[in-house]
Design a protein that fits this description.
Blueprint (H helix, E strand, L loop, with lengths): L6 E2 L4 E2 L4 E2 L4 E2 L4 E2 L4 E2 L4 E2 L2 E4 L4 E2 L4 E2 L14 E4 L4 E2 L4 E2 L8 E4 L4 E2 L4 E2 L4 E2 L4 E2 L4 E2 L4 E2 L4 E2 L4 E2 L4 E2 L4 E2 L4 E2 L7 E4 L4 E5 L1 H6 L4 H15 L5 H11 L4 H11 L16
Helix pairs in contact: 2-3
Amino acid sequence: MIDKTAIISKKAKLASNIRIGAFSVIEDNVKIGSNVEIANHCVITGNTSIGDNCKIFTGAVVGSIPQDLKYKGEKSFLNIGSDNIIREYVTINPGTEKGGATTIGNSNLFMAYSHVAHDCKVGSNCTIANNGTLAGHVIVEDKAVIGGLTAVHQFCRIGYLSIIGGCSKVVQDIAPFSMSDGNPARVCGVNLIGLRRNGFNKQEMDSIKKAIKLLFFSGHIKTQAIKHIKDNIDLSENIIHLIDFVESSQRGLCRSKKEKESV
């Protein structure tokens, strides 16, 4: 199960049924759950924990020190959940401040050459396509999809069940349930395919479409749009989450393609 050329620290903690390929390196403070597969030429380092049933493909580097000039060797962490797929040459960094952490949920797909920087928080069931890049302190909520060659600026948030087209430049928060694209990224509609795939019924989808229209395509400023949503749309759990996300935005929301000003 472990290739004879792999280098495994005696201090690393490995569970059962682990496969480790040729020339891979597992360093001192690494913890790996059961049924994990690590391909050839991978490096797992730092204070990194990896949950059960993860698959890590050739050349991935997981847990190397942050690419942050402020980092001075403080002890920080990388916590990865279960059932994640980390494809070829993906890089994932830990937190940058003392005790800081990068956290990744469950059942995510990180495609080849994608990058997760220090102090990011990635939820569950997300997809980051080839060469997708998250800068430091980015938050990605559950079931978000980030297209290939897309770059996300530090401290941005990517909302629940949103989708971002490939080659986009994200410099502000992407609202939940939205579809966006461009340089800089602009909201162009609702992630209807994502809603259907996740079992949303027609009533739920109609409410979300109305809320997104009010936020991005009505000409209302943010406070007016939110008031119209509260007055005219059933405040389901999903609508409340959308409102909370918008009201808590620190970087501002990504604009729509039809409006010049941020909402």
